Amino acid sequence: MSSLDAIDRQLLAILQNDVSLSIEELAERVGLTKTPCWRRVQKLEKSGIIRRKVALLNAEILGLPVSVFAQVKTDQHTPEWADSFAAHMAELPEVVDCYRMAGDYDYLLRIVVGDIAAYDRFYKELIRHVGISDIISNFALEQIKSTTELPIPPGEQ
User: Which residue segments constitute the domains of the chain, with CATH numbers given?
Assistant: First the structure.
């Protein structure tokens, strides 16, 4: 991250908040002309710092108000099982986040569904296809903070 200058950091902060801005608007905000600004954004994309550009959807309006955090434990720790599990998680649209964890549980999933019955159907399908030894499901009551914006570390002083 040390190769980023102050303008790159400004661009990243702005784009995290609103990727729909035109290059003209973006250039104006960071004090560049259009072409150098476009080149910088391209460089950030090619380097992988900008992974992709997406629209953030409202789960409530889409009828998906229930977030479930599931801690998954397995007694299978082979590379083949881990690859199979990861591939299966990638295929499940309800799983919006999946992390391999250190600690008592092996994986943490964030699952988004319409209601408890939908989660029960998801759960039954999950245990049918994936060898797990334990699962703890926690239902979110209220979302206090949710952001896709990462803190941009300051440059070297």
Answer: 6-47 (1.10.10.10), 59-139 (3.30.70.920)
